[in-house]
Specification:
This protein folds into two domains: 11-204, 2-enoyl-CoA Hydratase, Chain A, domain 1, CATH 3.90.226.10; 208-254, Orthogonal Bundle (Lyase 2-enoyl-coa Hydratase, Chain  A, domain 2). Helix 1 links the parallel strand 2 and strand 3. It has helices at residues 35-49, 72-76, 81-100, 116-123, 147-154, 159-168, 174-180, 192-204, 208-221, 226-241, 244-254; strands at 11-15, 19-24, 56-61, 105-109, 112-114, 126-130, 134-136, 172-173, 185-187. By secondary structure, the chain is an alpha/beta fold.
Length: 264
């Protein structure tokens, strides 16, 4: 879906060996999550979900800002309650699509990730941030509490850290985001693309079946009581053991050779 002002696609795709980079491509609007941008991202992720040769996804952004959150000019132009509800539901669906995507998603963050942009980072499985990156949930400053970003944020970091971000709107730097658990890696700005690609390539080199199974199991068990989680995880490991790649991986380890994955 193109930006009607520039006729440029809002989302660009670059394929690598075993992984793909999806780039938000509207820097003039700070890659804001307009309805059109969210539709373009949704379509990109839905397509990737069915591509078994893609084993990892990088979510990146063009320009100096990762994502400024919802497009406030668009939101201001909406007057009907059901239209606002539709926009927020669309955003929630996008975030849940990232979590439920079979492939791991790595956010590659340069610049600011604000409000729903911070939510986008929190919804990804991993996040590699440039050391100059910043994160904020500043809705409280404009009278619109970051309630939907709160859902993803509170599932990444401790409650008091989340509440401080939500109640003050103060931005945090990359090192603070790392210490809180919002991002998994912090790297020098010049190394951001290379280090993120290396991480994605390393994941893509593993058995795609195993990674898909593991990602799904992680999010299912984390919401369960302890005994139920162990029961579920035992069932997952039992099913995993019946797969070719598990038998091949164990055999390769014992025989001191590289495994030959079928990704099944």
């Amino acid at each position: 879906m193109p930006d009607t002002a520039t006729d440029m696609p809002l989302v660009a795709r670059t394929d690598h060996d075993g992984f793909v980079t999806i780039t938000m491509n509207n820097p003039s609007r700070r890659n804001a999550l307009s309805g059109a941008m969210m539709t373009a991202l949704q379509q990109a992720f839905e397509q990737i979900a069915n591509e078994t040769d893609i084993r990892c996804v990088i979510l990146a952004a063009e320009g100096p800002v990762f994502c400024a959150g919802h497009d406030l000019k668009e939101m201001r132009g909406i007057t009907e309650c059901d239209q606002h509800a539709s926009l927020f539901n669309q955003c929630s669906e996008l975030m849940m699509t990232i979590v439920s995507l079979p492939q791991p998603v790595i956010a590659r963050v340069r610049g600011m990730a604000t409000a729903a942009g911070c939510q986008l980072v929190a919804s990804c499985d991993l996040a590699v941030a440039a050391c100059t990156a910043r994160f904020a949930t500043p809705g409280v400053n404009i009278g619109l509490f970051c309630s939907t970003p709160m859902v993803a944020l509170s599932r990444n970091i401790a409650r008091k850290h989340a509440m401080r971000m939500l109640l003050t709107g103060d931005p945090i730097n990359a090192e603070t985001a790392f210490s809180m658990g919002l991002v998994s890696d912090v790297v020098e700005d010049d190394d951001l693309e290379t280090r993120t690609n290396e991480l994605a390539a390393g994941i893509a080199a593993r058995s795609g079946m195993t990674v898909r199974l593991g990602k799904q199991a992680f999010y299912k068990q984390i919401e369960m009581p302890l005994s139920q989680a162990y029961s579920y995880a035992s069932d997952v490991m039992t099913a995993n053991m019946q797969k070719h790649d598990a038998r091949e991986g164990i055999g390769a380890f014992v025989e001191k050779r590289h495994p030959s994955w079928r990704h099944e």
